Amino acid sequence: MARTTGSDGGRTEAAIREAAINLIARFGYEAVSMRQLAAEVGVQAAALYRYFPNKEDLLFTLMREHMEDLLKDWDQARPASADPQARLAAFVRNHIRFHVVRRHSTHVSNMELRSLSRDNLSHILRLRGGYEKELRQILREGADSGAFRIDDVGLTAIAIIQMITGVIVWFRPDERLSVEEVAETYLTMTMRLTGAEEIREKPHVHAHA
Amino acid sequence: MARTTGSDGGRTEAAIREAAINLIARFGYEAVSMRQLAAEVGVQAAALYRYFPNKEDLLFTLMREHMEDLLKDWDQARPASADPQARLAAFVRNHIRFHVVRRHSTHVSNMELRSLSRDNLSHILRLRGGYEKELRQILREGADSGAFRIDDVGLTAIAIIQMITGVIVWFRPDERLSVEEVAETYLTMTMRLTGAEEIREKPHVHAHA
């Protein structure tokens, strides 16, 4: 069902999504009932079923849209530059910016893969694979061109994604650092991890030699 | 209650722990009932309450023992060497080795902080803080001595722990890599991330210059 915000139905559907993400992030998918969700939104359970035929369909929709939004977001943020370091920087900044404002949704997406049926799980894993592939491609091209030093492109991509997604576990907007500052610190760590920092600094060192 | 494996009571208690970790990892704490857990272990619900007065006490015990075991484990693995790079290497190897064989327990420990009462949460966070402090200390001393290049010791410690704990999400013993190979790859990434790789390599580069 399309998200037609503005109409009453659109507003109800958006309220269902938001309440579902918050409840599932707090209690876990298995512990949340459609009845409880309806009460949270302030509608009859029957109204819920008009938007989502069953609880797993609701979970699948939330997780699918999370990944589709992330892919769309990266598609728009992707820089025109072919430089692997510029592309990696854009990837890290965009990933952190996207996830810190979707803390609960990210939490649900990472936690509740266990609760999906096999077909739905395959679908979500394909979307995740597509996103990870973007990073693997940046890393591989950078490794080939000498912009990065990487031993295992697959493991490095997973390690970077887990490291930068980890921001949502501890980051709160009222922390000592802004999102931008956190993103820059994580970017520096990513650049070191991929050897980019070292490679970038070498010409500077040589200029003084 | 002490873990007296060998006695009937000890065996029952160990079976409760194991079943609880598996059920909570699969369904989430809120969705698992003491009745369901008793059925899984094959005892009456009343027998469960002899070991754990209530469900949160059981969760707290599982999470507390996970952290106490980790701290004890690191205490034994901690190298005599004062060299920050050797200590960081030991920390990373030990962390990965400890967690890959406790995948469900790690999952529960990371996920179910949300389900602890305030006092129990404080207790667990203190234990976690104590463990993270070990890493922060290694990083700080290495940064001071010039063995590492680190911008923010606190963020770097969190980033490393999240990156290396992330192994449990995808690693299975039948993967293309052994635990030891995975640990070495993650160690190389950690050494790059902290600038240790670069610093370690410099004398080599200079020798050829």
From TrEMBL, chains A, B:
Keywords attached to this entry: DNA-binding, Transcription, Transcription regulation
Alphabetized GO MF terms: DNA-binding transcription factor activity; transcription cis-regulatory region binding
Boundaries of every HTH tetR-type domain copy: 10-70
Oxidoreductase listed as a keyword: no
Top-rank lineage group of the source organism: Bacteria
SUPFAM superfamilies, per database record: Homeodomain-like, Tetracyclin repressor-like, C-terminal domain
Pfam families linked to this entry: TetR_C_24, TetR_N
Keyword Transcription applies: yes
Record's protein name: TetR/AcrR family transcriptional regulator
Species classification: Bacteria, Pseudomonadati, Pseudomonadota, Alphaproteobacteria, Hyphomicrobiales
PROSITE patterns registered for this protein in UniProt: HTH_TETR_1 (PS01081), HTH_TETR_2 (PS50977)
Record-annotated DNA-binding residue ranges: 33-52
Coiled-coil stretches noted in the UniProt entry, renumbered to this chain: none
